[in-house]
Each structure stands twice: as C-alpha cells, then as structure tokens.
Design a protein that fits this description.
heterodimer, A: 146 residues, five-stranded mixed β-sheet, 11 strands, 10% helix, B: alpha+beta, Helix Hairpins, six-stranded mixed β-sheet, 27 helices
C-alpha cells in the first residue's frame, strides 16, 4: 500500500496539502512589497535570501475573505515550472502520510475556485486533506479567483 | 580518443578565432598591399591551420590551405602582387575553411566537400607569379633550406603539440633580411623548398640569441656572426654554431633553451578561456554580494560600533572593486563585432559595384558580452543597409560632386552609462518623401496620418515592419525585414535606435544601448508609501515645486484636466504615478511636489512622485510570470534594507499614460496595415475655441508651444501682426479672422499656439485653449469651408479640424518654400 507525504497547511476552514517534494521550504511571515495593478491574488513580493519571489495569497485565490487585521500569513514556498513561488497560508500543519487508496476526486460539495485548484481529497481519519494543484494555483491570471 | 577530441576541439576554437582575424587582415591587406606585417600574420594563420589539419588528417582542409599558403608565400616574397581577384580567392578560401571546420565540428569529419574548383582557382593565380622573382634573387639573404635539422632539441621532444602549433626553434632577427632558425621537420616539409629566408612567423616569444644575450651568456656580436653564418648556408642551429665558436658551452645553451621555452609558455598562459556560464554565475553571486553589502552598510551606519563601521566601509570598497572586476571579465571591445564588418562591407561593396571606405572610431569601447552578442545582427544589418541603400555608386557620387569612394564611419563611445554606436554614411541620405510614399504604398500609414507627421516621424517609418525602400529586391537587403528587426532586437536589450538624415549628404543611424543589464544605477522614489526604482538611463532631471509656487499659478497648470508644467518655455506633460498605478493619491497637502522628468522614446514627460529618495546601484531581478503581464515594471530589486522594490519601466508608464503615442499609433498602423482597410486613426488633438463658440481642433503634433502675449506687445509688419519672440519675429494669424468668423479682439491677452519647424515659427491666435484629447475620430464630414479640413465629433461635440497648413501660409507665405527640400518632403 503506497503513501504520499504531504506538507499541510490551513487556509480558512480547509486543510490543504502539497506533496513534500514540491515544497521548497516553509518560512514565517516576511514583509511584502505590494505590486500595483497585479491580480488581486498576488499578495506581494518577498525577498527570499536575495531572490525576489511572488507571494500568492491563497485566501484571495480561493475566494475567501481576507485575513483579519494583524493576522500574519505564513509562507509555503513551492517549486514551480517558473521558479519558486510563495503561497500565503493561515497556519502550517504537520507533514501527513496519505494513503493513495484514500484519494478521491473533488467532492461534489466543493464548488468554485477551490474545486478548480485542487486535484482531489484524501480522506484522513478525522478530516479531509485537499491536495492543491500547485501549477494552477500559481497561474493567477488564468483561473477563477472569486 | 578523448585526448584526440580535445585536440580537435582546441583546433576548432583556435581556428575560428584565427579566421575572423584573417577576414579582417585580408581586407586591410587590400588597402595596404605592402604591409609585410599583415602578410606575415595572414600567412601564419593559414600555415597553422594547414599544419594542424595535416596532423589531424583532414585532407581537404590541408589541400585547400596548402595552395592558399603557396599563394601567400609568393605574395609575401613579393613575387606576386595582390589583386582584388587574389583577395577574393583568398576570402573564398577562408569561407571554404570555415565550412570545413563547421562540418568537422558538427559531424567530426570533413564530409565530402568539393573544393577542387577553389584549389584550381588558387593554383591558377599562382601562375603569373614569377614576374618579380628578381627581387628575391637580389635580396641579400641566401635561401636557407627548410629541411635543416632542428636545434639541440632531441627529436622525441618534438611532440604532437609542437607540430600542431608552430616550430619551437627560431632565431634572432638582428640583421636586416631576417633569418629563421631551421624549423622542425614535419610541420613544413610540404612547403616548396625554394622559399626565401623570410620568417614564416612573427616571433611570439624571445629567440634563443636574444635569451643568451639578455642573460649575458654571449656577446651580441657573437650572435650576429653566427646568424651571418646561417645566412651563408650553415645549416646548423644557432646554439651549435655558438658552441663551435667557443663562445658558449652546451650547458649554457640548454639552459637558455629551457628559459626560452618557459617564457614562451608564460606568454601562452597569460590568458585562459573561461566558460561564459561560470562568468554568469559569478556575476550573479557578485550581485548578491552587492546587495548584502548595501544591507550591511546601511545597518552599520545606524550603529555606534566604529569597528563595524570601519569593516563595513572596507567591505563596501572591496565589493565595489570586485563588482567592477567581474563586470570587466564580461566586457569585450566592440571591435569583436566590428571586425567582421570589414569583410561584410568589402563583399557587399564589390557585389553592389560601390566603393566604400570603412572607418572605425572607438573600437576599444567595451560592452557586456551578452549585449555584444545581441547587437551583432542588428549592427550588421544597419551596415549592410548603409552600403546597399545609403552609399551611391561611384558614378552617382561623382555626378553629385562627391568623391567616388563612399565613407562609412562606425563610431562607438560611452555616454552617461550607455554605449552609443553610430553608423554614419556620406551617401544619398533618406528622402522623407520617398519614405512617405513607400509607407503609403505599403499601407503602413494613411495619407492623413502621413500629412500630420513631422519629418522625423516619417523617417522613423523605416523601422516599421514591412517597410523597404529598395527599388529591387537584392540578395543583400530589401526583403522588407530588417530595420524593424533591428529596432526590435535593440529594444529587447533596453536600447533605442534613431536615424537622422540629410538628403544628398548622408544618414546617421544611432544605436544606444546600456553597458550591462545586470546592475544599473537607479533613482529610488516613493509613491503611496512604497519605494520604486527608476533606471537613471531614462532620467533627465528632477524638478521640485514648492507648494507656494503651485498656488501662485507658476507650477502645474491644467488644460481641461490634463496637467502640464511649463519647463523653460516648453510644455511638459505630467503623469501622476499614484494615479497610473491605481494607488491612493496623496491625502495631505504636500509642501512640495517632486517631478521626475523622464525620457521615453523621443518625448519627455514629468512623473509626479511623492518623494525622491536616493540614487543607488541596483541589481535587476526578473519578475515571476504572474507579474509579467502588468507591463509597467521592468523587474524588481532588493534595496539596502532588504525590502523588495519594483523597477519602473518608464516607456511603459509613458505609454500607459498616453504620453508616448508611438505605441498607440503603431498598433493603429498595424491594424490598418493588416486589414488593408483604413481604420479610424487615434489622433492627439489640441481643442481650442476661436471665433465665438466655434470649437476647433489642431493636431497636437502641429503644436510646439502654447504662449500668452500681451496685446500691447503686438507690432505690425505691413498688414501682418507680429510679435517679438525669442529674439525673432513671430508672425501671427488670428484664427477667428482666418476662419472668417466674428472676431473677438477685445481681449488684453492673446492665447497663441506656436508651431515651429526648421527654425521658422508662426503663431496661431485662438480665443481660448480648451483641452488636449486623444480621440478616435468617430464621424467626419468634409463640408468644404475655407481653412478647414472638415469636422469631426470630438468629446461628443462637433469640432472643426483646422487646416493648419493653410493657416500657417496665411501667416507666413514662405514658411514651407524657404526651407530645404528635405523639410518640405514631410508635407509632400
């Protein structure tokens, strides 16, 4: 029985996961430079050890309400075809071993942006782990963001 | 086999370099046929290639170079005179060698090329040779047989290396007809033995005699005697003769030989080849270092720790030097690209039947390697274009009173962090009328658009896709791709292309490119709390307007909402950065307004920012693909405190704000060119009021300045109203009278639209200036009325389009005829 390792994090009410091999690192909140005229889900630019990378705000991307004032997001830096991109998330969760047999296509209850951005869900014992489609997530200009 | 591959590889790299040199030398040789130095250099190159190809068993290569070498040796000995045919044949040989090398590089073998006709051609050129044989005979030096034994070097020391490169042993040059120590066997054996004793090679290191004299082992006179004996037929190496004469010992000779080969090696080892990849990564690292340095320096300045401050200053210094050093490793003289052009110009000149003298100024001007690569093609195309279209045939030139030989000048120089490259010809120049006509024919512009264009703008049409002025399609240029590609390629690396031309006198193409792309000086500013960097390349000046000034009406004025600033008499359009970026405008009333005057294309505009901070060197970082589409940012950088700042793309900002119409025009032009249907052009207009409630529009391109004159300053010349303006007489025409409507002459101050061209100006007096607008002309009627081109709906109101040409002629009947033909061309 094969399993995949997921780096997990919370955004709003959901638990999301990205295969660990696609995650470069997880870092705490970094000051960001806003990018005028950019799509709404671009949170800003951060300085990752001398590299300028784009931070995509998953709440915006998933069409969720913004974080409350003073709540600082965490950065999950993922590897994509166009280099590193940071995903702004609410909280970092543990690394989870998910069994392939527990995987299912996106549940019918899921609609809108979330459905577009996930590959499917793993039925963990206590809750659902939504596997994020990283490529779709970072292509902010393409998808529904509302 | 690996060793072999390496040798082949080295041979290829070396030969390619040598061939470039060869092209250049041959072309120069044509101008200075007597230069022994050039001949020697050419001969040496061919000889080296021949030697190595023989060793590596590339027989085609060897046979081609062999005849070439024979030909060259005759030239060198003065038994043959250099004719254009010989030069052409030799250049053809260079091409053949190049293609053979290309085949070797690609497939590892020479393939099966047929160079027999070339070999025959070269051989036939050898024939009429013996004409000047007498010269060699009379030369004081007796021929030295080539097959003489090598010096004291044992035969087994003559390794493959020695053979592939050049003979190891050589002798002093002291007495005039220079002699050479007999060479190693193998390398030269195929060379006809009757050659004179001239050196095959320019010495690359010291000669044995020199070494021995310099180390005090022998007296110069003894060497001279020994050399003289060699001339007289003594076939022994110099060292042996010297030992024989008892002036030195075998011990000393072998020591000197060692020293000789050592110093030779050090000459070869003084440069190394470095992978560009490595340099690139080094460059990146240095970029990081510069950033870290900025951070530390900033941090240290806030601390009282003097040691930290001192070491941070030291770090600052070292990092700067390191940065400079690494930049230098990537810098190459522009000559690397130019040197190829000599050949291009020669071949092209011959095939077009034109005489062209290529001159170069500033060949050692250095540029980053990547940029150099990027401008190679555009530059070559520009030069081809100048020879093909610019310079006339000798007959035409003579008829025009110019020397038969055309002059093409390449000039490169640094200016303000940029490199300027100019391609200047003294040819026929570019006739704007022809350009305009061609552009019309190609459907690149509509007659309307053309009529409104200034001469400059018409000339710039040659950079449009699909434009070509060549009457016939030649194999050189004139395929309609070219100058637009030049422009695109140059712009891709952040450069600009410009052209100026005087009909009958010549044209100048000016390419401006940044020195390097990686690290640029920039101005940091703030807008709505964020910092942005503006590349200094676009920066013209900074203007600070005190709040008091703006209140007094001296500062920013509005023409119906469009902000402008009078800067030394010119109207500078203003762009608010916060507005353009969709950021909140300033809440509190600032005590001063900062305006960054920028150059975008050929226009200047003022960018209103919140604060101006500092200038610093920034490292350009690319933006993620998520942000590429925004357009107004050229990249990002990391500032001294570690924060990320966006770099503004000034041209894009200008286009976004419609300051630069080029982009809009261009898309409009492209649209009409593509559909073949005349589409409604987007035209910037100055809307004025004249003669009661009549709204009239003037194309903004016909507006040089807006001025206000006191009625009292008006004077009269004949029945014309004039005013003294900038030391000249400005004729005025009252638009209301010109249009035949009710004249409102009661105003104490006159609003005047000044149009200048070619040093002449006229003033159009209007009642009021209403607005500047950029409109697609929705509907137009051509109600034929005096002074009008028609009318159109501008901003939902019927607006008359003024016939400015007529109005100008009413003020100054000689306005157009007085100028030269070139200027008039713009309106033809």
């Amino acid at each position: 029985m094969s399993t995949s390792q997921f780096s997990t994090f919370n955004v709003g009410p959901h638990l999301f996961g990205i295969e660990v091999e696609n995650v470069q690192e997880v870092i705490r909140y970094q000051p960001m430079t806003r990018v005028p005229l950019a799509p709404a889900s671009v949170g800003g630019l951060i300085n990752l050890r001398g590299q300028v990378i784009t931070a995509v705000d998953l709440r915006q991307r998933l069409g969720m309400p913004s974080r409350a004032e003073g709540e600082l997001p965490m950065n999950v830096v993922v590897r994509t075809d166009d280099g590193a991109v940071s995903l702004l998330v609410d909280q970092i969760g543990p690394v989870v071993d998910a069994r392939d047999e527990d995987f299912e296509a996106p549940p019918e209850t899921l609609v809108g942006a979330t459905r577009y951005l996930i590959r499917g869900a793993y039925k963990l014992e206590d809750r659902l782990l939504l596997a994020l489609d990283v490529q779709r997530t970072v292509e902010v200009s393409l998808a529904p963001s509302s | 086999m690996d060793d072999m591959d390496e040798i082949v590889q080295e041979f290829l790299v070396e030969s390619h370099e040598n061939l470039d040199q060869l092209d250049q030398d041959l072309v120069r040789l044509e101008q200075e046929p007597d230069s022994r130095e050039l001949l020697a250099s050419v001969f040496r190159t061919i000889h080296t290639i021949k030697g190595t190809s023989g060793f590596l068993a590339y027989s085609s290569l060897e046979s081609v170079t062999h005849v070439g070498e024979n030909l060259l040796s005759k030239l060198r000995d003065g038994r043959l005179e250099l004719t254009p045919q010989i030069t052409s044949a030799l250049l053809e040989m260079v091409d053949a060698i190049r293609s053979l090398l290309g085949a070797i590089e690609a497939t590892g073998t020479e393939g099966d090329p047929d160079h027999r006709s070339l070999v025959e051609k070269l051989t036939s050129l050898l024939e009429p040779a013996v004409v000047e044989a007498a010269v060699t005979e009379s030369a004081p030096a007796a021929p030295v047989a080539e097959t003489a034994p090598a010096e004291v070097i044992p035969a087994e020391a003559v390794t493959a290396e020695a053979v592939t490169r050049e003979p190891v042993t050589r002798e002093p040059v002291t007495p005039e007809p220079v002699t050479r120590e007999p060479v190693t066997p193998g390398a030269i054996t195929e060379v006809p033995a009757q050659r004179s004793a001239e050196p095959d090679f320019m010495p690359t290191g010291p000669l044995l005699g020199e070494v021995m004299v310099n180390t005090g082992r022998v007296h110069p006179d003894d060497v001279a005697v020994a050399v003289a004996e060699q001339h007289l037929g003594d076939q022994r190496p110099l060292g042996e003769i010297l030992i024989d004469h008892g002036v030195t010992t075998p011990q000393e000779v072998s020591e000197s030989l060692e020293a000789q080969s050592e110093s030779r090696r050090s000459a070869a080892d003084s440069t190394i080849r470095v992978d560009v990849e490595l340099l690139d990564s080094l460059m990146r690292l240095v970029g990081e270092l510069v950033l870290t340095r900025n951070q530390i320096v900033q941090h240290a300045s806030t601390r009282a720790d003097t040691d930290l401050v001192r070491s941070s200053q030291r770090l600052n210094l070292i990092a700067s030097e390191l940065q400079e050093g690494v930049m230098k490793t990537r810098m190459q003289p522009i000559d690397n690209v130019w040197s190829r052009l000599t050949r291009v110009v020669r071949d092209l000149g011959l095939s077009c039947g034109k005489q062209v003298r290529l001159e170069m100024e500033g060949r050692d001007t250095e540029l980053d390697k990547t940029i150099l690569e990027a401008i190679k093609d555009p530059l070559t195309h520009c030069v081809r274009n100048s020879v093909d279209h610019g310079i006339e045939t000798p007959e035409e030139r003579l008829a025009a009173g110019k020397p038969a030989e055309g002059r093409l000048l390449l000039r490169a120089f640094h200016e303000g962090g940029q490199v300027n490259i100019e391609i200047i010809d003294d040819g026929a120049g570019i006739d704007p009328r022809k350009v305009g006509a061609k552009a019309l024919e190609r459907g690149l512009v509509t007659p309307d658009q053309l009529a409104r264009m200034s001469e400059r703008e018409v000339l710039l049409l040659i950079f449009q896709a699909g434009f070509s002025t060549a009457a016939a399609v030649t194999n050189v240029s004139g395929r309609g791709v070219g100058m637009d590609v030049v422009k695109t390629n140059v712009e891709k690396i952040g450069g600009t292309v410009d052209v100026t031309s005087v009909v009958g006198r010549g044209s100048t193409f000016r390419i401006k490119i940044p020195l390097t792309l990686a690290i640029i000086p920039a101005l940091t500013i703030t807008c709505a709390g964020d910092r942005y960097a503006i590349p200094q390349v676009s920066l013209v000046e900074l203007v600070r307007l005190e709040a008091a000034q703006t209140v007094a009406g001296k500062g920013i004025e509005h023409i119906s909402g469009a902000p402008v600033l009078r800067l030394r008499g010119n109207l500078l359009p203003l762009v608010y950065l916060d507005e353009q970026l969709g950021l909140p405008a300033r809440r509190e009333e600032a005590e001063a307004i900062f305006i960054v005057v920028l150059q975008a294309d050929d226009r200047q505009f003022g960018l209103v920012v919140h604060e101006v901070l500092d200038t610093e060197e920034i490292v350009v970082k690319p933006l993620g693909s998520q942000l590429k589409g925004i357009g107004v940012f050229a990249g990002a950088t990391i500032l001294g405190d570690g924060a990320v700042a966006l770099i503004l793309d000034c041209l894009a900002v200008a286009q976004r704000a419609n300051v630069v119409h080029a982009a809009g025009d261009r898309t409009g032009l492209e649209r009409s060119a593509r559909s073949g249907v005349e589409s409604a052009p987007v035209v910037p207009l100055l809307v004025v009021n004249c003669g009661g409630s009549r709204r009239a529009a003037i194309p903004l391109e016909m507006v040089t300045r807006l001025e206000e004159f006191e009625l009292a300053t008006i004077e009269h010349v004949g029945n014309h109203e004039v005013v003294q303006y900038r030391g000249a007489i400005l004729p005025l025409v009252r638009m209301s009278r010109f249009l035949g409507s009710f004249a409102d002459d009661t105003s104490e101050r006159l609003q005047v639209v000044v149009y200048s061209e070619g040093g002449r100006s006229v003033g159009l007096v209007v009642d009021a200036i209403l607005d500047i607008t950029e409109e697609v002309l929705v509907a137009s009627s051509d109600l034929d009325d005096h002074g009008l081109l028609g009318s159109a709906v501008v901003q939902d109101k019927i607006t008359e389009m003024l016939d400015i040409r007529q109005a100008i002629l009413a003020a100054d009947p000689n306005f157009y005829s007085a100028g030269d033909a070139a200027r008039e061309g713009a309106f033809a």
